[in-house]
Amino acid sequence: MTFRFLVLGDSLAYGTGAASPQDTLGSRLTRVLRESGRATELSVLAVPGATSLGLAEQLDRAAAVDADLALLVIGANDLTHQVPADRSAAALGSAVRTLRERGTAVLVVPTPDLSSVAWVPPAFRAVVAGICDQLRARQTRAVEAAGGVVAPVGPGLATRFSADPTLFSADRFHSSSAGYALVAEALAPHLLQLAATRRDAAA
């Protein structure tokens, strides 16, 4: 039986900044699933630049995948495009609910801490971090109410990214291959736990 793994969201879900397709988040986590004994098929429908408001279109394209497990990485563009937090969280919650109704287990990586990116002036980092925290809290409530799981990796990853510029790609915003490796390592246990739950439910 093939385990169908779906990746939705923005440029971080797509893998912008990675040196090769094998270094992207989807590819790295697919290898994690395969190494756990699951024959896994990856479908990446993420769109660089997407906000939560664009998830509905991605879900339309994902309907034919019939995924067992979906990873959603979304939120950074909601902040940079100034999408109201209530609309952002509601759109994410709706996307998770749709996937759950299709029988898909859902792991969400919410808004990253954008205060760690180089172009944020030090004087504004606390403010940016606070705004990210507020949106992340709204996203978490919406995801959990819709039956999804939020990966609790944000603060730890932000600290690592702030301390190591090599985790960013040349644009100083997206992750580098090393950055994606770090994110995948943090997500792997949560992904495997959810995959096991999905397998047990199917059985």
UniProtKB/TrEMBL annotation:
GO molecular function: phosphatidylcholine lysophospholipase activity
Keyword Hydrolase on entry: yes
Annotated InterPro entries: Ester_Hydrolysis_Enzymes, SGNH_hydro, SGNH_hydro_sf
Keyword field: Hydrolase
Name assigned to this protein: SGNH/GDSL hydrolase family protein
Gene3D superfamilies (alphabetical): SGNH hydrolase
Record organism: Modestobacter muralis
One Pfam family, short name: Lipase_GDSL_2
Domain SGNH hydrolase-type esterase: 7-182
Signal peptide span: none
Highest taxon listed in the record's lineage: Bacteria
